[in-house]
Amino acid sequence: MSEQVIGRDARHPATIDKPLPAPTGLTATPLPGSPTEQPAIMLVWTDNAKDPDVTVRLQRAADAGFAAGLVELAQLSGTTTYTDAPVLAGHTQHYRIRAEGPTGCSAWSSTASARTLLPAPIGLLASVAGNGPLRIDLSWTNRSYATGVHLQRATNPTFTAGLVTVALPVGTSWVDDTVAADTTYYHRVRTHYLGSASAWSNVATVTTPHAPAAPVGLRGWAVSEPGGATVVTVSWSKDAGSVVTGWTLQRAADREFRTGLVTVAVPGPRRAVSDTVAPDSTYHYRLRAANPAGISVFSEPIVVRTA
User: Fold this and answer.
1) What domain range includes position 285?
2) What is the pLDDT of residue 136?
């Protein structure tokens, strides 16, 4: 950039080069990315040269003195924005910019700094699987670009007791099948990328059941239905302190349950079952409860006599 100055001889004007004005207003805005986009930093500035022959040089460094990790990012023209991608999450990046033209360079702009952070996973859920073996099903939503997931399990909410850390590939679910019965567990997850990690997710808490107690209140009665069918209805109650996901009902012709043995699986919510049998016979019934933690002993058997 130059201007003409008229001297004593107007036929031979003197040319004086003016210094290039430095870019101003440099800002750096972190862009945390997403599961499909790497973290980045958006840079914006004001071009004060307004000259098509002038470009801008953009530098990044790991320290504010631009002595460590100095990188020449770009030589740009005709723009006042630049996206630095990808960047190392969890580390502060420092930027500066200057104008460069045929007659020289401007001073460096003021510096701008930014630090990207990986967004933590959200929506962590934990539940005991409804069928055996005993396990906890976990699911969550990832929000960051990642190369892996860390999952932690503990037996207290501060994660200082019974701590187990598992390194997982990138995913949104996991089955924890190394848990014990009648125990409260706390889980949390985080993502990691290029040595940096997100904050931990919410904590999901779940208590595994103990093996159920034997059913109580087992009783049965026989009814002769119209048309000649004989039906025995067997009902029972659940132990108040037990979690039950299923029942096993057995019928036999003898009290040792060796003759004419029939075994029926009954879904957990049920508390009664109907059994079509022969008339003028004696039947023995017993029942046991089950959940993912184990199986109860059989109840005391009952005897039903059909007419």
Assistant:
1) 216-305
2) 97
